[in-house]
Write a structure and sequence with these properties.
This protein is an alpha+beta fold. It is 65% helix and 8% strand. Strands 2-4-5-7-6 form a five-stranded mixed β-sheet, with helices on one face. The two termini are 69 Å apart.
């Protein structure tokens, strides 16, 4: 049996026994309360179990139950210790009564017994051996309650001594030897008390089966393995052989000396067979162990050869890996240098495109100075603003670490403010509100959208508030689920009802519609309470 399974079984036995001991003690008290003879002794020729014994057994069961591991708290341990001390005192005070021939009045506190009771030196007084057993058991429980390796070991040693103390009268009962359970002028030992004390001692022994003396029986070591098998056989065979010999002598089949000779011979034969069997088993185990050690040594040698081989392979692989890493590092440096050069080139391109667009804007501005026609001047100014809107994107990209994406919220803010100061002569008349999020867009989306922003804001600034009219322009740019939404709202005179914004000769609206289609967007117009243009679009993936 596996050591862990045996430990769990011993613990279960101890816990269950603690409950059954309490029940047994209560049954004895009931037998005295209702005069149930069979629960006091098995027959007329046996001494009765005493009430103090029953009380002590109940306290032992309670103490042992409280000291089980899962209930071993401070309060429970205190109650268990108090119960153990009372058990010790019951045995000690009874021993005092015997040693000094006095009556302390503790024997008949609960129930009275007739003075002429069988094998009773004093009414209802327990036997001397039982009193000594209670002293030992009380001490064992106190040691067990401390629950340290040292105290548990002492507890088990004392419990084992108790087993031998109560085994003596038990052998006397088995083999019909009254001298072992009755001393003249002392109370005889009750067989019920012997059985309960033996049961109690074993329960204490197995309360902590993984510690102390008992751990030598429950471990997975070789000594524990053979002890588990040989000890029960020796005990059982010894008792059986002795009992058979006793029955033969009692039946008159042979005299005691012949019976003793048969007992010794039988014991020697059986013990020889048992030890020979275990010797064969041990030799077989040693042979298997030696074979396993040889196999292990062979495996270790093979492992060592394999390890050396693998070490050489790993060393060679490590050299190759280092060379590969060095080569890869050189390649990464080359790639990084190339990327840096390309990044600088892209920045230079954006910078030059921005400069060229600004030159175009400046040329348009200079050229407009020579034009007297106001309508032509407006056209030049609008073209100049369109060039500046694209130049502003390339300027943002040139200044950014990401050469492909632009913070379009920041771009809208900058462009709106420039257009506002370009077209609004008196800033106190028109309020500009900008509500935008920090959204990064691909350059292929940002350039057409920048032109749309320029046209819609310019349209509101130029046409929404004629003749010094007060008003407000609101610009919103926010993400909406998987889309983005750009809105320009003004509370001016409103978009003319007779104009179709999708089919119009105005270059600005034609650009807005065309560029919206280019970015796969949708445009909506709301003429209520002024004018509201709403552009909904996605940031398209231009890498596919």
């Amino acid at each position: 049996m596996d050591g862990y399974d045996l430990i769990e079984r011993f613990r279960f036995f101890s816990e269950l026994s603690s409950i059954l001991l309490v029940v047994a003690g209560l049954l004895v008290l009931l037998s005295w309360a209702f005069d149930i003879s069979i629960l006091k002794s098995p027959g007329m020729g046996f001494s009765t179990i005493k009430t103090n014994v029953a009380v002590a057994i109940i306290l032992i069961g309670l103490s042992l139950w409280l000291m089980q591991t899962k209930r071993n708290t401070m309060n429970m341990r205190s109650i268990a210790q108090i119960s153990a001390i009372i058990v010790f005192l019951i045995g000690f005070l009874t021993l005092i009564e015997y040693l000094f021939a006095i009556n302390l009045g503790i024997d008949q506190i609960l129930f009275k017994e007739l003075p002429d009771a069988l094998y009773a030196s004093s009414p209802n007084r327990m036997a001397l051996a039982v009193a000594v057993a209670f002293i030992l058991i009380g001490s064992s429980l106190l040691f067990l309650s401390r629950n340290t390796p040292k105290t548990v070991n002492w507890s088990q040693i004392i419990a084992l001594i108790t087993v031998f103390v109560v085994a003596l009268p038990l052998i006397g009962f088995l083999y019909g030897s009254p001298q072992l359970y009755y001393i003249p002028n002392f109370t005889g030992v009750a067989i019920y008390a012997v059985l309960l004390l033996l049961w109690t001692s074993l329960s204490i022994l197995f309360a902590r089966p993984d510690q102390g003396l008992v751990s030598n029986l429950t471990s997975n070591q070789l000594g524990s393995y053979f002890t588990q098998r040989i000890l029960p056989i020796l005990i059982i065979f010894t008792i059986i052989i002795g009992f058979i010999t006793y029955l033969g002598v009692k039946a008159g089949l042979y005299d005691p000396s012949f019976g003793l000779s048969i007992l010794i011979l039988s014991t020697l034969i059986i013990y020889t067979i048992i030890f020979l069997w275990f010797a064969i088993t041990l030799n077989k185990t040693d042979f298997e162990r030696d074979k396993a050690e040889e196999q292990l040594k062979e495996n270790l040698d093979n492992l060592e050869i394999t390890v050396k081989k693998r070490t050489n392979e790993l060393t060679n692989a490590n050299v190759l890996l280092k060379e590969e890493i060095k080569e890869r590092e050189n390649m990464e440096k080359e790639i990084k240098t190339s990327l840096e050069e390309k990044e600088m080139l892209l920045k230079e391109i954006h910078h030059r495109v921005k400069n060229n667009l600004m030159i175009i804007s400046s040329l348009l501005n200079l050229q407009s100075g020579y034009i007297k026609d106001k309508e032509s001047q407006v056209i030049f100014k609008e073209s100049q603003n369109r060039a500046r809107s694209m130049a502003l994107i390339h300027e943002r990209l040139y200044q950014s670490t990401d050469l492909k994406r632009i913070d379009f919220g920041e771009y809208i803010t900058s462009l709106s403010n420039e257009l506002f100061h370009t077209y609004v002569a008196d800033p106190s008349l028109i309020k500009l509100k900008i509500n935008v999020d920090d959204i990064f867009l691909d350059i292929n989306t940002a350039i057409p959208l920048g032109l749309i922003v320029n046209e819609l804001i310019t349209n509101s600034l130029k046409h929404a508030f004629p003749d010094g009219m007060n008003g407000e322009i609101v610009i919103d740019f926010h993400p909406l689920d998987a889309h983005y939404e750009f809105t320009v709202i003004d509370n001016g005179i409103g978009f003319p009802e007779d104009l179709d914004y999708k089919n119009n000769e105005s270059l600005g609206l034609q650009l807005v519609n065309s560029l919206t289609d280019q970015i796969d967007g949708e445009i909506e117009l709301d003429r209520n309470n002024g004018t509201e243009f709403k552009i909904t679009f996605k940031d398209l993936d231009y890498n596919g």
